[in-house]
């Protein structure tokens, strides 16, 4: 990694800077200028806003093909591809009004197009909007997106579930690189803090073509916050308080930019006590503390753009074992507990040529996970070090044809430093090659691609054969070919359909191949299977959308067939008072979808009515149901928008009713779960202070203090309820 950074620094002094500039006027209806329109060039991380005359200007930009996006609340966003081949380029834009949310550029699909232009249906949500829902953690906020759920252990540990698939079947990207943090374990959380993250993009379906192994169930792609506009300095301080956990989240961020250089830094601290159920009882040792630090430096000129980012995250997590026992408001974790530290270093580069572009992303992750049973000496400690690379070459655009070819890979080592072994010391190497192309004519778009991957896993022998914590040496290689094909078209005015067919794969993880012992939190003895084969799936997606100026409606349907689905099954044996489970394989299928509408009645411009329903069913080939499948849910929201004179702008108030139905389609090791209804309220807006502003957000979640148990709660087997009423207050001062 040091070698690459040194090359980058030496390259700074050798580059000859051109003075290319793009500028223009942004107008609305009747040719009226629009002020404060966001103008953003994502490939070079440069942004600005229009002035009172609608004028914008971006300097020091590269030659070649560059994408520029224009977005403004209340108007349809535009994403322009501009050929820069002279010092001054004029680009005037006319934006059309809309009553719905802004159309945003989607990064995760490779071609950086607006969602309305994409072949794949991608859900995009800003972290600011997730926080407006009053959720305690990032994963809890993600679970409000249709098709996304969470496997939770109290409020501290949450694992995202996309259409019934979780763990190593869902890939997570942050800062442009894949996150590796021992995510195979149910008690291993996401390890990301929402502060310093601008938005998340959710691909619901196999994305192995773009991301390789482990993306067979979908991808969560987190976009970091943008740098400040050129020649500006910005800062913000936010504070959120939570009544239920007596929790607090504090964050301070500073950033500044010149025409070429960009810099930002952010620090965050979260702390929470044990959460309280609807019966007003605290669940012992669900408390947690989190420290998060992010910083970034970027540079761009006429030849290339480069951003170096670093994120340090430290978690102190209590592991609940006693249920409702000691009633305490302390935030100091008890035993057993987890200590997790994560270092994420990424280097994102774009090299611009005359008519093409090379994108090269490098990442290094050092994950240190410890479990403490009854003392501060770690009984279990695993250190995972991962170096990954992602190189994409964007070929010259030929008419309406865009093509990307690329190579991705990963080198990973796992080392055990504690007395207990959960998985053996091991080395994993991935390499993959792919190509994808996008062709557009009129309202039609076709996207297709092919990919080949290889994963090699080598592990060391450990212990005495036959005893708990012993492993035999492993030397395995897994190969896979994958393909995708998608088509988007307008069936009629305002009516769009997307049809996608894609395959994905997942190589077995170390726990599935090698386990030999009792896993923390599972209360069972698990035995791995070194003969497991690669999981391979194929999924068909159909999306239908209708929208006009006051009404939106969508239907998403999917069918996902998985060969060699890996799961655990009881052997009937008992060891040390724990039932023995072994990893086996069977073919499986998942199917379902989401349906929703958004009604904005005229002339009630301040009123929005939203409703969505989601369902997924998972079965093995013999007809038995798969475990950990989320229950059907129906979400309804009434949202009002308003302004109160000159002291509150962008005001909003929401009334939300979320209905989760009974879950009776359970596996042989699960029990049925009763349905429940939660009522949530929210109020907020922006209070201007001269050139500064104060954002305020007040939430009451689970307003009626409902007592309920989520089907995906890992505390369900002990009869422990989920979180009760939680009132939260959030403020953010921007300066």
Structure description:
The chain is mostly beta strands and 735 residues long. The strands form six sheets. It has a 22-stranded antiparallel β-barrel. A five-stranded mixed β-sheet has the order 11-17-18-15-16. It is globular and about 75 Å long. The protein has five helices and 42 strands. It folds into two domains: 2-98, Immunoglobulin-like (Sandwich); 138-734, Maltoporin, Chain A (Beta Barrel), CATH 2.40.170.20.
How many angstroms separate the termini? 36 Å
CATH topology of the largest domain: Maltoporin, Chain A
Beta content comes to: over 45%
Major beta sheet summary:
22 strands, antiparallel, barrel
Any descriptors?
735 residues; mainly beta; Immunoglobulin-like; 2 domains; 22-stranded antiparallel beta barrel; disordered N terminus
Summary, kept brief:
The protein is mainly beta and 735 residues long.
Task: Detail the topology: elements first, then pairings.
Blueprint: H1 2-14, E1 21-27, E2 38-41, E3 46-49, E4 55-59, E5 64-71, E6 78-84, E7 88-90, E8 93-94, E9 105-106, E10 113-114, E11 122-126, H2 127-131, H3 138-142, E12 148-153, E13 157-162, E14 165-166, E15 171-174, E16 177-178, E17 197-203, H4 208-211, E18 219-224, E19 232-242, E20 247-257, E21 261-272, E22 288-300, E23 304-318, E24 337-352, E25 357-372, E26 380-394, E27 401-416, E28 426-441, E29 444-459, E30 474-492, E31 495-506, H5 510-514, E32 516-518, E33 524-527, E34 535-547, E35 551-575, E36 578-599, E37 607-620, E38 633-644, E39 648-660, E40 676-689, E41 692-701, E42 726-734
Parallel strand pairs: 1-7, 1-8, 15-18, 33-36
Antiparallel strand pairs: 1-4, 2-3, 2-5, 5-6, 9-10, 11-17, 12-13, 13-14, 15-16, 17-18, 19-20, 19-42, 20-21, 21-22, 22-23, 23-24, 24-25, 25-26, 26-27, 27-28, 28-29, 29-30, 30-31, 31-34, 32-33, 34-35, 35-36, 36-37, 37-38, 38-39, 39-40, 40-41, 41-42
């Amino acid at each position: 990694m040091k070698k690459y950074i040194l090359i980058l620094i030496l390259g700074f002094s050798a580059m000859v800077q051109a003075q290319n500039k793009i500028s223009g006027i942004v107008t609305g209806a009747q040719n009226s200028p629009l002020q404060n329109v966001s103008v953003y060039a994502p490939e070079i991380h440069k942004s600005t806003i229009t002035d009172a005359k609608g004028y914008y200007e971006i300097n020091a930009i590269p030659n070649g093909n560059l994408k520029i996006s224009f977005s403004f609340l209340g108007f349809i966003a535009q994403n322009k591809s501009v050929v820069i081949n002279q010092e001054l380029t004029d680009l005037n834009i006319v934006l059309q009004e809309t009553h719905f949310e802004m159309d945003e550029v989607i990064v995760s699909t490779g071609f950086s197009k607006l969602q309305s232009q994409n072949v794949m249906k991608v859900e995009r949500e800003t972290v600011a909007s997730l926080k407006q829902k009053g959720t305690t953690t990032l994963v809890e906020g993600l679970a409000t997106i249709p098709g996304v759920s969470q496997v939770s252990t109290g409020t501290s540990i949450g694992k995202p579930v996309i259409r019934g698939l979780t763990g190593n079947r869902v890939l997570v990207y942050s800062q442009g690189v894949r996150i590796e943090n021992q995510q195979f374990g149910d008690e291993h959380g996401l390890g990301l803090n929402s502060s310093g993250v601008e938005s998340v993009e959710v691909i619901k379906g196999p994305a192995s073509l773009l991301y390789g192994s482990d993306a067979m169930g979908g991808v969560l792609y987190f976009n970091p916050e943008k740098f400040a506009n050129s020649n500006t300095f910005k800062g913000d301080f936010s504070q959120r308080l939570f009544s239920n956990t007596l929790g607090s989240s504090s964050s301070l961020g500073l950033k500044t930019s010149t025409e070429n250089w960009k810099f930002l830094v952010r620090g965050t601290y979260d702390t929470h006590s044990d959460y309280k159920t609807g019966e007003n009882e605290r669940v012992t040792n669900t408390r947690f503390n989190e420290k998060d630090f992010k910083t970034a430096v970027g540079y761009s000129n006429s030849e290339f753009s480069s951003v170096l980012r670093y994120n340090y995250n430290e978690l102190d997590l209590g592991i609940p074992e006693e249920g409702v026992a000691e009633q305490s408001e302390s935030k100091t974790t008890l035993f057993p507990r987890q200590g997790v530290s994560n270092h994420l270093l990424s280097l994102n580069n774009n090299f611009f040529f005359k008519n093409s572009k090379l994108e090269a992303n490098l990442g290094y992750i050092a994950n240190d996970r410890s479990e403490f049973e009854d003392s501060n000496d770690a009984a279990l400690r695993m250190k995972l070090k991962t170096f990954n690379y992602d190189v994409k070459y964007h070929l010259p655009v030929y008419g309406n044809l865009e093509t990307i070819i690329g190579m991705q890979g990963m080198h990973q080592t796992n080392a055990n430093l504690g007395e207990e072994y959960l998985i053996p010391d091991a080395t994993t190497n991935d390499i993959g090659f792919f190509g994808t192309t996008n062709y557009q004519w009129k309202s039609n778009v076709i996207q297709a691609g092919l990919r080949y991957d290889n994963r090699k896993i080598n592990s060391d022998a450990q212990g005495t054969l036959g005893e708990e914590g012993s492993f035999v040496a492993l030397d395995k290689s897994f190969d896979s070919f994958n393909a995708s094909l998608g088509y988007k078209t307008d069936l009629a005015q305002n009516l769009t359909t997307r049809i996608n067919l894609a395959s994905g794969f997942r190589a077995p993880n170390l726990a599935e191949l090698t386990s030999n012992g009792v896993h923390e939190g599972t209360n069972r003895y698990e035995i791995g299977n070194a003969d497991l084969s690669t999981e391979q799936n194929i999924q068909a997606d159909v999306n239908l959308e209708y929208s006009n100026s006051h009404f939106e409606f969508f239907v998403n349907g999917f069918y996902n067939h998985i060969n060699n689905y890996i799961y655990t099954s009881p052997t009937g044996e008992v060891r040390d008072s724990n039932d023995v489970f072994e990893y086996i394989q069977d073919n499986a299928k998942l199917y379902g979808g989401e349906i929703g509408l958004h009604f904005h009645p005229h002339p009630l411009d301040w009123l929005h009515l939203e409703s969505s329903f989601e369902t997924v069913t998972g079965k093995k080939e013999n007809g038995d149901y798969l475990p950990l499948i989320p229950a059907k849910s129906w979400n309804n929201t009434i949202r009002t928008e308003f302004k109160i004179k000159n002291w509150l702008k962008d005001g909003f108030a929401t009334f939300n009713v979320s209905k989760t139905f009974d879950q009776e389609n359970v596996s042989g090791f699960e029990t049925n779960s009763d349905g429940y209804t939660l009522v949530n309220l929210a109020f907020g807006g922006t209070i201007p202070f001269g050139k500064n502003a104060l954002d305020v957000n007040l939430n009451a979640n689970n307003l009626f203090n409902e007592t309920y148990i989520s089907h995906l709660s890992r505390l369900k087997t002990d009869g422990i309820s989920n979180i009760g009423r939680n009132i939260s207050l959030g403020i953010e001062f921007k300066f």
